[in-house]
Amino acid sequence: MARRVDYEVTPALLKAWEAGARQWWALMDSGFNAPNYDGCRKYGENHLCEFYNGCHILAANETKFDTLYQRKR
Ligand code: SF4
């Protein structure tokens, strides 16, 4: 689901976005890999994140993901 939200991108907003993005990119570069529970039910109970069961039933243990998901090759 995508929702359009119009707003003016000011230089200050763009700078704030870049600062936040650079923090996430630095964490990703360092190997940080943790759940972001803000997104699990972001669009309601009928539109759960595709990895909901992996995170909430399998405790994000990727070694068990093959029991629920099929890896795309
Ligand atoms: S279910 Fe897992 S992957 Fe999906 S938003 Fe929640 S924490 Fe992130």
Give the helix/strand layout:
Blueprint: H1 11-29, H2 52-56
Based on secondary structure, the structural category is mainly alpha
Question: How many strand units?
Answer: 0
The main sheet comes to: none
Number of helical elements: 2
Give the cofactors and ligands.
Answer: iron/sulfur cluster
User: Total domains, how many?
Assistant: 1
Low-confidence spans: none
Shape category: extended
Give the ordered list of helices and strands. HH
Helix content: 25-40%
Radius of gyration: 16 Å
Summary keywords:
73 residues, binds iron/sulfur cluster, extended
Could you characterize the architecture of this molecule?
The protein has 73 residues and is mainly α. The protein has one domain. It starts with 10 loop residues before the first helix and ends in a 17-residue tail after the last helix. Bound molecules: iron/sulfur cluster. Iron/sulfur cluster binds next to helix 2. Iron/sulfur cluster (SF4) binds next to helix 2.
Sum this structure up briefly.
The protein is mainly α and 73 residues long. It has helices spanning 11-29, 52-56.
